[in-house]
Amino acid sequence: MIRMENVQKWYGSFHVLKDINLEVRTGERIVICGPSGSGKSTLIRCINHLEHAQEGRIVVDRIELGASSRNLDAIRREVGMVFQQFNLFPHLTVLQNCMLAPMKVRGTSKSEAEATARKYLERVRIPEQADKYPAQLSGGQQQRVAIARALCMNPKIMLFDEPTSALDPEMVKEVLDTMVNLAEEGMTMICVTHEMGFARQVADRIIFMDRGEIVEEGTPDTFFTNPRHERTRNFLGQIL
Ligand code: ADP
Ligand code: MG
């Protein structure tokens, strides 16, 4: 579903992604962890081309960006993204937030967009919030709206960039539960998170990044019980 080959990226003279190679199969759940500034956000933002890598190949569901911006639209339609800051439109209701992209980007009819939005708001267990504005919701509820909004585009892949880091502790679980449900339904997912309980529960593979490199990857079992690299052990020592 996703293939990154020898991807290199610089911000000016700063080498932020160093020879990244990553393959994600359909239905696979990947967790990426690593210290702040190690390039995790940059890596996943390259997948839907919110960031541009100067070298290497990135193929998403057999689509490669190449020169055509038509492919950019095609790739973005396949990939849903959820950010640390929920990024909901403040002037739109929850329902309208969920209906906007399908109507604008996919040309879905209003009635169909509304039916889809209500279905996913049900799925993330906040159907009763449909007519409220984002500011009237808790952080956990807003993040679940952001997940529902992404799902309304019917993506094949979901990218999560520290979706629980901005939440008060008591709201973390409701968002993680939503993500666990999504994983159980077979969604292909890449999650940047330091929630290691979540990683243990759903990840097929955990990837550890440091200073722009993929240092180590493995199944949760090997990753937690037998990390090969000193840098991984140090990191796990700090967060567990
Ligand atoms: P992480 O998500 O692992 O914390 P990021 O991918 O956000 O790391 O950032 C990796 C490094 O790149 C950091 O040192 C950060 O300061 C730098 N960086 C991120 N975005 C930019 C940018 N737009 N311009 C210049 N440097 C950036
Ligand atoms: Mg980040």
From TrEMBL:
Domain of life assignment: Bacteria
A Pfam family this chain is assigned to: ABC_tran
InterPro entries, A to Z: AAA+_ATPase (IPR003593), ABC_ATPase_HisP-typ (IPR030679), ABC_transporter-like_ATP-bd (IPR003439), ABC_transporter-like_CS (IPR017871), MetN_ABC_transporter-like (IPR050086), P-loop_NTPase (IPR027417)
ABC transporter domain location: 2-236
Keywords: ATP-binding, Nucleotide-binding, Transport
CDD domains: ABC_HisP_GlnQ
Keyword Ion transport appears in the UniProt entry: no
PROSITE patterns in alphabetical order: ABC_TRANSPORTER_1, ABC_TRANSPORTER_2
Gene3D superfamilies reported for this sequence: P-loop containing nucleotide triphosphate hydrolases
GO molecular function: ABC-type amino acid transporter activity; ATP binding; ATP hydrolysis activity
Family recorded in the similarity comment: Belongs to the ABC transporter superfamily.
Protein name: Glutamine ABC transporter ATP-binding protein
Gene that specifies this protein: glnQ
